[in-house]
Amino acid sequence: MFLVDTHCHLNREYYPDGLAEVFARVADNDVRRMVFASADVATSREAAALASAQTDAPEIYALAGVHPHEAENVSPSYIAELEAIAADERVCAVGEIGLDYFYDHSPREVQRRVFSEQIELAKRIGKPIVIHVRDAQNRAEGDANGEVYAMLREQGADAVGGVIHCFSGHAEDAKAALELGFYISFAGPVTYPKNQALREIAMTVPLDRILCETDSPYLAPQGFRGRQNEPWHVRSVYEYLSMLMGLPLEEFAQAVKENGERIFGWGR
């Protein structure tokens, strides 16, 4: 079986003792490919360097992008720096980028500008986009999902496509993403007992448009909550979603693998 964690954070700050034990645990759980997500220019460099240096199993790919939390801190040259990083063949997408109105760590107008600039970067270099989006606690005070999909439509992001990572929106948000040709990725929260609405949305996503991730070290699946999440825990997400869809685990895993290859261009 071939499992892929399409979104995890493997930074040294989370694994100061190195990744040897992490890699051993993923091997024991059939996780053979991981995507190292980035938050700013520095972590984009870190992700690309690890992905390029990793010649043994597991396969590692990288994202290059500025998270909305870090939008206020970008330098005037950040787009040029990201473009240089993204030239590496192991960098498979621009991300994670988007809008976060829940924490508002950067002013919203700055988030929108930086998001827009990175959509244009993705279109220019022909790589897909990985989206982080979170509404304000009261959506009436900040509809980040609505703004994200409007911006993606207005800027023609369907030309490159992408992924809504760690999906947490409403049914209409999933519909908007699918209409744009984007893929929808689910993480540990889909396994939480109180997230029935999220599970109902997951069951409406076509098999050929679904991805699985951990977003580790955050959001550990049910059964691992209260401890640091790790990429091997993505197996729990696969097991849960395959059960919801009434599919054998291996059949579901093969579909997700093919979805990742299609959107990220792996194997081309």
Q: What are the salient characteristics of this protein?
A:
alpha/beta, TIM Barrel, 268 residues
Describe the structure.
There is one protein chain. With 268 residues, the protein is α/β, with parallel strands linked by helices. The chain has a single domain, classed as TIM Barrel. It has an eight-stranded parallel sheet with strand order 1-2-3-4-5-6-7-8. β3, α3 and β4 form a beta-alpha-beta unit. The radius of gyration is 17 Å and the shape is globular. The mean pLDDT is 97.
CATH architecture: Alpha-Beta Barrel
Average pLDDT: 97
Spatial order of the strands in the main sheet? 1-2-3-4-5-6-7-8
Low-confidence parts, pLDDT < 50 over ≥5 residues? none
Radius of gyration, Cα only, in angstroms? 17 Å
**CATH third-tier fold name:** TIM Barrel
- Total helices: the number is 9
| E-strand count | 8
Work out the count of structural domains.
Answer: 1
Task: Assess the beta-strand content as a share of residues.
Answer: 15-25%
Major beta-sheet overview: 8 strands, parallel
* SSE ordering: EHEHEHEHEHEHEHEHH
Helix content: 25-40%
- What is the rounded distance between the termini? 21 Å
Class per helix and strand makeup? alpha/beta
Assigned CATH class = Alpha Beta
Annotated CATH homologous superfamily:
Metal-dependent hydrolases
Based on Cα principal axes, name the global outline.
globular
InterPro entries: DNase_TatD-rel_CS, Metal_Hydrolase, TatD-like, TatD/YcfH-like
GO molecular function, one term: metal ion binding
Protein name: Hydrolase TatD
Pfam family, one: TatD_DNase
